[in-house]
Amino acid sequence: MRYRAPWWLPGGNLQTIWPALMAHRHEGRPPAWRRERWTTPDGDFIDLDWLQATGPGVRTPLLVVFHGLEGSSGSHYAQAFAGWARGQGLACVVPHFRGCSGELNLGPRAYHSGDHQEVHWILDRLRAAHGGPLVAVGVSLGGNALLRWAGEHGTQAARLADAVAAVCSPIDLAAGGAAIGRGFNRLVYTTMFLRTMRPKALAKLAQHPGLFDREAMLAARDLYEFDNIFTAPLHGFRDTDDYWRRASAKPLLPQVRIPALVLNARNDPFVPAASLPGPREVSPHVTLWQPPQGGHVGFPAGAFPSHVRAMPQAVGDWLLQAAGLRP
């Protein structure tokens, strides 16, 4: 991907914050989502938001968008990908990780960066229901989970997805966690995430008394401490270090056997450039795009106030071509 940020948005932080708050997300009207609720195998639920295809026939390709940490179908990138899909005549669906659809899930768990089992269950059911070609993109946390799934399943991943992409994903979670826990990142981004994550965790504690230490949660000041109290123990990890090590997708990239795109801006505040993989660290099925600019899921383009449609178009076109759905 060849990308150059507008001159008036220099640096990774501006290229992250401005697109999320101010840039145009799509052309024309916003996506008109149709919500569907699925019961999970463990008796919980997830909500999926659908954008119906405008093209004819059941063979219309389906774009699956896995959102990032505390994201949803309302996130700027999800709306931009939906707008691109609508323009291409594709169906699009945003499966919400547990607790991210606006309603707290039921079980004594939430979601995490390495949740490849949940990704597998979702893709398996979508493939069976849709019947046609399927491509998937994961953004930030969702991209790490998607790549983790592709690596875990090797050649069998092709049964469920024709091509996948990860956008601005912290595939080395320890490196990303360290970066977001320092300086400006800690002050701005960590505070932003904890503003929604802590109340959800406390609501989960009210659902399931004794699940974790309430006072420790109230005292948590960064994602490392939050994951140590909540994410890691609730999802079968010993502690944050164990979680970040075992959930990271980067070590599994040599095992990927379906077309996979890994896009990371080298000025992403969350994902240090030094932690990104090189060509020798991935399988021949993996394509690396590492433009020098773009921020974290930003990639603003065009005249003021800019738009965020360029990245979804580039990634979406790559997915369709890699899946053999476009010349």
Describe the structure.
Helix 3 (116-130) packs across helix 4 and helix 8 (223-234) packs across helix 9 (240-247). The protein has 10 helices and 8 strands. It is globular, with a radius of gyration of 19 Å. It has helices at 12-21, 76-88, 116-130, 141-153, 173-180, 183-207, 214-219, 223-234, 240-247, 310-322, and strands at 34-39, 45-51, 62-66, 91-95, 134-139, 163-167, 260-263, 286-289. The protein folds into 2 domains: 12-172 and 248-322, 3-Layer(aba) Sandwich (Rossmann fold); 177-246, no CATH class. The chain has an 8-stranded mixed β-sheet, sandwiched between helices. The two termini are 18 Å apart. Helix 2 links the parallel strand 3 and strand 4 (91-95). With 327 residues, it is α/β, with parallel strands linked by helices. The longest helix has 25 residues, at 183-207.
| SSE arrangement, N to C | HEEEHEHEHEHHHHHEEH
Assigned CATH superfamily of the largest domain: Alpha/Beta hydrolase fold, catalytic domain
Distance between the termini: 18 Å
Query: In CATH terms, what is the fold-level topology of the largest domain?
Result: Rossmann fold
Radius of gyration: 19 Å
